[in-house]
Amino acid sequence: MMRDADRMNGPNKPAPSRSVVRAMIWATVPVLLLVQLLASAGVEVSSFWAQIRQLDARIARVAESRAELIAEPLWKMRYDQVTGVLNEIMHDETIAAAAVYDDTGAVIARVVARPEVQSLTEVSRPIKYSNGNMAVQAGRIVIAYSYATLYMDAGSRLGLLLVVGLLATLATVIAMRISANIFIGKPLAAMMSAIQRSKQDSRAYPADVKSSNEFGQLAIAFNAMQHTTSGALDRLGHMAEHDPLTGLPNRRTLSERLVTLSRDAGAPDALIAFCFIDLDDFKGINDTFGHDGGDKFLVHISERLRGTVEAQDWVARLGGDEFVVIRPEVGDEAVAQGFARQLLDAISEPIMLHDKQVVPRASIGLAVRRAGDPELSHLPALADIALYHAKSKAPGTVAVLDEALQHDYRRRRDLELAIPTGFSEEHFEVWYQSQVDLVTRDVIGLEALIRWRHPDHGVIGPGEFLPLIERSGNNARLTRYVLTDACRALQRLAAAGAPQIRIAINLPPSELADHSLAACLRETCERFGVAPSSLELEITEGSLINNIASASDTLRRLRRLGATIALDDFGTGYSSLAHLRRFPLDKVKIDKAFIREIPESAEDKAIVGVIASLAGTLGLTLVAEGIERDEQAQAMREMGVRLGQGFLFHKPQPLDAVLHQLAEVGGGEHMLADSPSIAPEFA
User: How many contiguous H segments (helices) and E segments (strands) does the chain have?
Assistant: First the structure.
């Protein structure tokens, strides 16, 4: 999971890590400082207003007390005493000036202590004089005072509070940093270090945390989890690199092994033998003994391979029934072949499965390369080329990679890759070969045969590219390609005055399992305006055996449309006569292998005679394939075979050439035996 996360991050740089302690301090300190400042400012403002109120009250008391003192001097006009009383209050720093007015409002006395003060507040009190029964208002006293001193004191205190707050905050930050680092930072760093080290080499590393708080408990739980999962991680690592059934290394470790071999080889010229092993007919083992039996079979094979190789050799299972054996140093290619045959002999020893003796068979593709060869990493693909050759040409043998096999492989790969282009650009061509009445030599039908006109490799025969089309899953596409061309050809034949000629097309085995084939045939015929009865569909015995249920259903659907069903290459497959009555067949085509030696081979004549007799009894039409000589045609007529096909009558050619020859012989009544081919010849 860690590696997957790293891949998902890709080339992006990881985000810079940010300390939890630092983040906590940066989140806390501004709030702490702001709260301190607001609290201090609030206290100071409250104190300032209290001092303002106290000053107002004090000045008011001073004004009242001085009004009592100067009442009599003012009434008796002793103005110097009035001035003296005013001078007595000027020592107060907050009082800037004072004045006394008589009852007429005239200024009797004025004292100014601080004329520079601009913002002043005044308090005024009446001066009352009483003597016996007399009580009069003699005047009033006015005192002007300033809050400047209070403002200065408040500003000084606020500045001091700010400095003290900053110092307190700094001390708090330092204390927080030290304590957070001890109780949070160090435990987290220890755990992160353990996690990072575990991530780097997939091993368990404990977190060294000694505290008994929550982080200590978390570290204890983390270490316990590491201890519990370390074994599981080791097991998962082993499972990721080994086959769970046999315990052998798997495909994942193959590339690493090749790199190791190249690095650890004694010399760049040391030869490495790579054996790619594939069991023959392993599907049959599974079908016969079940998947449990198949698993036991694979375990037996793996144990035999282990027991055959030496300590320095390397054995792996790539999946399914594929194994690899690498010998890191061999003397030469002949020694490597001997080693591969030794493996093959060990595999071929009988095995008991469910009390039954089974003889395993395998094919081996062998590739030998030098340790310093740049192609060393391609050994699996190179050996697979040889294995493909062994399985297709001679199963149960060892095939050694050589230049010819590599050339064939490159050509095969080129053709496989070019198949989609071949369809889209119509490089595939449908050629036609006639079927004639052996008595009248009239052309009664044509067989559609596919060819590939490759832009680089020229015209390619079906024997080479049809297996590639099947492997690429394009069988259905090819069938519909040929069907479309055949319907177009029927349309042109009718226009040329030969509507009686039928066209036969070959169906691959996979098409017999496709229930949509009948609907496709009907739709294509309707599109070109031709009757399905003008088509003949050829199948092989093998395709019937492998798809009995689905093949029977598909053939009956096609038969109901009016198409003719022909059994092709009769005698070369299972040769079960039961097929002739079990399936809805109209024709049987005798394989050319039985025609080639007639009339010289009495045995072949006897076989053809039996087939002709049986076909006559079952009401089937016989077609002899591969007729190349007049005496073969004569022999077929004598044995009751009415229809023939072969180079004697017509070689496969494009439709234009066929129509040209039909026109030359008068609408197709006869075909010229010596008609020249205008294209490369293929059987």
Answer: 21, 21
